[in-house]
Design goal:
Blueprint: E1 8-12, E2 17-22, H1 33-48, E3 54-59, H2 70-78, H3 81-99, E4 105-109, E5 112-114, H4 116-123, E6 126-130, E7 134-136, H5 150-168, E8 171-173, H6 174-180, E9 185-187, H7 190-205, H8 209-222, H9 229-244, H10 246-256
Helix pairs in contact: 1-3, 3-4, 4-5, 8-9
């Protein structure tokens, strides 16, 4: 098996957690067109998998990801515009797949997250980083722009910060990333980050899987929308639908009868 074949690992655990892992530590987990396809396939698999309730996106080694692989960039520079367009659309598909995954996604970011890796972080639902993690939207240094990742990064950090970091290509710290909204939780080191991740997994496991999916859909439905009569009616329809659904009925019954819901791990008696 080649290094390329093992560049993306999928660990499906017995506790309903699946880990999608970038596994090129010797290349600082940089990605290319082949790895993008492997990431898409892994994410689509866990999205379909009924046993998977929570997804973790992480990397092996010192760094989360250096972004685009140097060899891939060399090939793209020699490609036609159409070939570059096709290539970019696949990266766009990766970002969209991750962003709209129906399961909660926790991103663990250590070391450096540069270029497209910032996009991966922005597409996760919950992002943990260490105090030494650093971020950089470095594209303009190469005469390029962070185009495909921009919708997700701008939503994560806001237009004002994007106007600075898209143009300056400055490195910014985990502390700054947390202030801007890209990072939710900053941990002392990787060990502490993994401990906090385990705590989050336990918290998420208490929640209805279908409800979490519906909550994520709800965010996309109302985000940046004017509060119109149509939006108000849509939200009313959503809560009515989920209240009469199997999971909603089970959750309400469990709460009213002071017992654990059926989806909560352990003894539900």
């Amino acid at each position: 098996m080649s290094q390329q074949d093992t560049a993306v690992l999928l660990h499906q655990r017995d506790d309903g957690v699946s880990e999608v892992v970038l596994n090129r530590p010797d290349k600082r987990n940089a990605f290319d067109d082949v790895i993008i396809q492997q990431l898409i396939q892994a994410l689509e698999h866990v999205d379909r998998d009924e046993q998977t309730q929570i997804v973790i996106l992480r990397s092996e080694g010192k760094h989360f990801s250096a972004g685009a692989d140097l060899g891939w960039m060399r090939r793209m520079a020699d490609n036609t515009r159409q070939e570059n367009l096709d290539d970019s659309r696949e990266l766009a598909r990766l970002m969209s797949t991750l962003n709209h995954l129906s399961k909660p996604v926790i991103g663990l970011v250590q070391g450096a997250a540069f270029g497209g890796a910032v996009g991966l972080a922005a597409c996760c639902d919950i992002v943990l980083a260490t105090e030494k993690t650093s971020f950089c939207l470095s594209e303009v240094k190469l005469g390029l722009i962070p185009a495909v990742i921009s919708p997700y990064v701008v939503r994560a950090i806001g237009e004002r910060q994007a106007r600075r970091y898209f143009l300056s290509a400055e490195v910014f710290s985990a502390q700054e990333a947390q202030q801007y909204g890209l990072v939710h939780l900053m941990c002392e080191d990787e060990q502490a980050m993994h401990r906090r991740c385990n705590e989050l997994q336990q918290q998420l496991a208490l929640n209805g899987p279908e409800a979490m999916k519906a909550a994520k859909d709800l965010i996309f439905a109302v985000s940046h929308k004017t509060i119109t009569a149509e939006v108000i009616d849509d939200t009313a329809q959503r809560i009515a639908d989920i209240r009469v659904g199997d999971e909603g009925q089970e959750g309400l019954s469990a709460f009213l009868n002071k017992r654990k819901a059926a989806w909560v791990p352990g003894d539900n008696s």
